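Need the bound structure for NAP, inputs here:
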Amino acid sequence: MKTVLITGADRGVGLLCVNCFLKDGWTVFAGQYMPEWKQLEKTKALYPKQLFLIPLDVSDTESVKRAYSAVAEKIDVLDILINNAGIIKDDSYESVLDTFNVNALGPVRMVETFLPLMDKGMKRLCFVSSEAGSITAAHRTDNFAYCMSKTALNMAVRLMFNSLRPRGYTFRLYHPGWVKSYMSGRKSEVGIYEPEETAVCAFSQFVGDRGWEDALVLTDVNNVAWPF
Ligand SMILES: NC(=O)c1ccc[n+]([C@@H]2O[C@H](COP(=O)([O-])OP(=O)(O)OC[C@H]3O[C@@H](n4cnc5c(N)ncnc54)[C@H](OP(=O)(O)O)[C@@H]3O)[C@@H](O)[C@H]2O)c1
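Answer from helper R.:
Posting the output first, comments after.
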């Protein structure tokens, strides 16, 4: 049975990705950031042997290390790591730092910490980014915190790609589209995609192989490439 870890899995795109992997028979480690939000527990009741809930705050190095120990107690090989957790905040300096810590440094922490479990597996690293981080396609005039954090994430992924692709790792950099998810703190009424719609597309891109793994491309929910 193949294994995957998904960060920020309590709700939104992460939770719906959890469902896709479970339905496909994977063993899933779901990063749980909001224990008060009960959806993951309900899913656990349906898949008690396949789903493991792992307390995880990607902004906190000690939390990431504890999550690593909890996962490594159960498995020897992690096939796919999906860095999905993300936040959007206002543009105060403090919020910019918080947003960088979650959106850009979080995935770096995760990869650095979990790599020892991945070397013997499928070696796939997935990152949920955004068109908001694209310098070439930028059209906004504010949202400094979120946009800059996703640009920084894209650069981090490029650096990891340069160092880990020669070791056999493959990469997915995914833009989920405009999703009716919970980034504002409650389910959004505006947006183009329901979380389940983009999760299905994400799942097929995260799991499927490509004949062009030596290129790092930001692909969206329609599998269209974006400049970044
Ligand atoms: N929604 C969109 O239109 C859109 C567009 C482009 C890209 N994205 C990206 O897609 C990804 C998933 O977002 P989503 O739309 O599904 O948002 P979401 O519904 O808010 O889900 C993200 C999950 O990550 C959790 N989280 C927040 N901080 C965390 C931390 N420090 N450690 C671990 N988990 C944490 C969130 O908890 P809280 O709810 O408590 O914060 C939430 O459960 C994000 O990376 C986002 O930037 C979203």
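Comments: The radius of gyration is 16 Å. The chain has one domain: 3-226.
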